[in-house]
Amino acid sequence: MEQKFIDQGLKPPMIQNWIQEFNTQNHGKRVPFREIKPVLQFIQDSVGIHPTRLLKQSVRRYEIGNLHSVSGEVFERAIQVKKEIEQHLDSNQKIHKEKLLDKIYGNRSGFIPFYEIEEKLEFLRTYGGQYPKKYLGRGIRYYQKKKIKRIASWRESRIDRDCREIIQKKPDLRLSSLPEKFMNQEIGKLLSVLKKISIQQICRNNDAGFEADILLQVALGRKPYPDPDQVLIRFDDAARYLKMKRKAFDYLVASHSSLFKKIAVRKENGWYIPDESLAMLKKIAGFSLIKGKYDFLASREKENRTSCYGSMSRAIGSSRSSKT
What we know:
Radius of gyration: 30 Å
Oligomer: single chain
Strand order of the largest sheet: 5-7-6
Strand content: 5-15%
Number of helices: 19
Number of strands: 7
Distance between the termini: 80 Å
Order of helices and strands: HHEHHHEHHEHHHEHHHEHHHEEHHH
């Protein structure tokens, strides 16, 4: 078969390239090279990343016509890199070429990019009097000059441990002086405390109006049933969908049964809630506090009460039957 192509004046390398490209077409959608070419050019002009790096083979093979298309995966990765570059340009942020390359190639197992620990080393030097060589095993200039770009992950563990020790010994350090990783951890702790205080305040005030306003947004936004695009979730599965304790969700339903009656859908085998109503509820600002309140109440509740799911079903059923 190959001889027939050769007899037509085609050279073996070109035949092999065609076979290779044909075989890859079964592994996903192919994108013509002409569509990805301007994307590759933009990336190269913006940050100097050569197209060959994104294509994972010589770009010249495409330019001279040996190959004509790229995989959908390569195309999507190039588009993602382009979007990230555009976001940095729009916000006037400095583009970190090494980070982009790591996103393209992925990190090496067991190693950490130097740029991820650079500010930690500066923190250790400034507030702990520890110099980088202690952690790197060599002078930092090798890394700053890009001669070495990664460190072993066990070295990062040691760096993180010493950073934590300094933070614990110096609790008066400003958040802005901490490395980003530890600053985010401390901010997370503060936000967690603020959330707990807010939940306790809601429990203390027992502001049913605040909760009703949030639930009412879901009731008003609900599409009429039946809707062909609507997916229904059983009441006893709704708690898991909302990532609430079952008893907490029961208490929530019992406290606002009139509003849940407007959301609930009755079917032959039980009561359901549209998934879009639950999704909307999760997104509404303030629901996390309501969820926290009822989770807190459920954890504190020691009385053995009947499931509010059953009482909810009976409440809705009785109200509907009384109307008929």
